[in-house]
Amino acid sequence: MTIVYEDNHIIIVNKAASEIVQGDKTGDTPLSETIKDYLKEKYQKPGNVFIGVVHRLDRPVSGLIIYAKTSKALLRLSEMFKKKQIKKTYWALVKNAPPQREGELVHYLVRNEKQNKSYAYPKEVPHSKQAILSYKLINQSQNYYLLEIDLKTGRHHQIRCQLAKMGCPIKGDLKYGFPRSNPDGSISLHARKICFVHPVTREEMEFEAPLPDDTLWNSFK
Length: 221
Known about the structure:
The protein is α+β, with helices and mostly antiparallel strands. The chain has helices at 31-42, 71-82, 158-165, 215-218, and strands at residues 2-6, 10-15, 52-53, 62-68, 87-94, 102-112, 117-121, 129-140, 145-151, 189-197, 204-208. It is 16% helix and 35% strand. Strands 1, 2, 3, 4, 5, 6, 7, 8, 9, 10 and 11 form an eleven-stranded mixed sheet that branches.
């Protein structure tokens, strides 16, 4: 965990691919608890420390995540996410070239809880939710293409599912059709940038997360 920004109301971290945002059935220590321990120690706080989970990133994904340090910030940030007032930009490495250099993808996703997987359909089907993102090709190496993704809706596994449907599964993402896993269990999807208005001070905020330190990502720096 690397802290990117902290004030009295929010804390923003650059999550490593192996870390989980909040507790799950694995029983592994989530980032929310690690941050609580850090705050307890830093400010010598007795008793419980408040940390509110505002949004999520899948475990194998790296990048920026915001936590609330007060209930007021949590309430306002949750509302801002609901109203799509927080702009998130992702970077993804894919093996296949996208059909166009840039475009918008609109699908209807159905989540299968048992498989923990989403399926994309071109038209509305029962229990589906509309998913929209835009992408553009911003770089390429000998073997991979780097896509920048602007997420318009926040659905389960949305980027992973929609890019795979386009024929561009993300490197390392076995669940969505990439042939090999990454050695560290990550997938090559990174929450690169986040822009929003501070929930309390109303200041314009913009943060960018450094890329994961591995050979392939390093070749795109």
